[in-house]
Amino acid sequence: MDRGSDYCGGMKLRKRLAKKLKQMKGDRTKAEFSKRLGIGQASLNRILQAEQSVSLDLLETICNSLRIDVIDLLADESAPERNRYSRPAVGFMIPGTIPPARS
User: Fold this and answer.
1) H-helix or E-strand containing 30?
2) pTM flag (> 0.85)
3) What is the distance between the alpha carbons of residues 29 and 96, in angstroms, rounded to a whole number?
4) The domain that contains 41 carries what CATH number?
5) What is the pLDDT of residue 13?
6) H helices then E strands: how many in the chain?
């Protein structure tokens, strides 16, 4: 897959995560915020600088610590509102649809 392709709506996910965490950090120190997230201060700094990829496990830890859904954490708030389910992955149903009948 071409790493230059962007199916995430413009801003790279790393940058979205950094932007959202900076907003949520607010006036707290990095030490306070990293403790709240349950991650090291060095890791937090790299994430806030969009220099570090995060694993799904770390993303889950962050979401649980902040009590936020991963969709809300990674949403591109600058993009116009659009249907999240406009390009479903193969094998996934679009909410509100009826599954096909089995033969």
Assistant:
1) helix 30-37
2) no
3) 43
4) 1.10.260.40
5) 87
6) 5, 0
